[in-house]
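seq:
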Amino acid sequence: MAVRIKSDLQITKIRKASEIIADCFEIILPYIKPGNSTKDLERVIEDYIIKSGGIPASKGYCGFPGALCISVNEELIHGIPSSKKILKDGDIVSLDIMVWYDRCVSDATRTYCVGNVKSDTKHLLEITKQSFFEGIKFARKGNHINDISKAIQKYVESNGYSIIKDYIGHGVGIDIHEEPEIPNYDVGYKGVRLEPGMVLAIEPMVSSKSSKVKVLKDKWTVVTVDKSMCSHYENTVLITDGDPEVLTLRGDKIWKKLLVALPFQKKDMIRVHII
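struct:
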């Protein structure tokens, strides 16, 4: 299947879906605490998506039962929300949210700390997040997918962590998973050339130790084989004639904080869609 270039109308709808997701990451914060179940988190998110005019895209997708994927500690992706899975002090939890809005879809993930988390685990989350921003320095017209992939891998591995290679990013917008595939590691060839109107779900997935993963008996939840902690950070990104737009990142206050942390030159600055 060819890579789809989105129309202005489609991009407007993808922006709206992205805004709903960004809001979800804000409203869920008070609920990420010891004692709450992953089902509790799902109820909050699903209720907000529906009230905002969206549809939880995960629910029913290939038979997945949850309104979003919620993965804890050694669970990398595709964790099923459950009233039996209770968050504990020191856990980390990833929320992977996909939203349909008027037949267009957006996708983003955040990994959060629950209570008092060990410093080395916090560092894992920081490196995973930063690797995304290292990658999108290259998400520009005329570059290639592998430019993004190489930058993510280089940053993660230079900090002593492992890139998960079994799962990768993808195009998004009209379907949940579209071309092009976006690995988080160097595949040895350039890949698709980036053009304005492409919408990409770029999503580094990182383990503190081994990169080997397996699927549990529920046929969905992916965990690290050695039970090492793992982190996931994802945004929906629009390729433009100039700077890429991170559609699922919310607010200029957040962006100002990022500018302090990121080693960008002025000409390399990335435009965040301000909600």
